[in-house]
Amino acid sequence: MKALNFCINWLEMLNSLIIGIGRSLAWMFVAAMVFTIVLQVFFRYVLDNALPWPEEIARALMIWMMALVAANAYREGSFVAIDMLHHYLPKAVSRALKIALLLVAMLVLYQLLVLGLEFFQRGFRTRAATFHLSRAWIYLAMPVCFGSMLLVNIELVLKEVRILCGYKAIDDEVSSAC
Questions:
Q1: What is the three-state SS of 104-164?
Q2: Do 4 and 160 form a contact (C-beta atoms < 8 A)?
């Protein structure tokens, strides 16, 4: 049980660091995106001379912003979910079902991470249409997103296993041995 607690604590610290960095960068990307859009509106409607690059820059910033905060949303349970069934099941069955669903999600996230890395590698073959940057740096957002979500998923699985083994969910005291 000490090894499980060590792994959970280590993952919590790592995920908290990644999420903190992601949230800090995300708000800067949102600010840059808003600035870029306002700049385009000014050039298009005030100066009557639209710039060619702001839409693509804003889209890239939005993609990165989403990728940087997805792990935080996943960790907090902020994604849309249908969770009616677990209220009607016994607690142990509900926990086992949650672990099974998290394991399925883990497989999906792993596959998406692998596909995202392949897409990132292929992105070096092309450049953004309106500014001089390899599309790979925009595509890197997907492996970052799925990799951070996968780490959070592993943390959630381990926490559910710990609860299933007898730890109380609220105060983490042992009620029985695993």
A1: HHHHHHHHHHHHHHHHHHHHHHCECCCCCCECHHHHCHHHHHHHHHHHHHHHHHHHHHHHH
A2: no
pTM of structure = 0.85
The structure tokens listed for 10 are 């280590």
Model pLDDT for residues 58-106, shown as the tens digit of each residue:
999 999 999 999 999 999 988 777 777 777 888 888 888 889 999 999 9
Give which of 64, 63, 73, 97 is closest to 149, Cα–Cα: 73
Copy the structure tokens of residue 147: 């990799």
104-155 pLDDT, tens digit each: 999 999 999 999 999 999 989 888 888 888 999 999 999 999 999 999 999 9
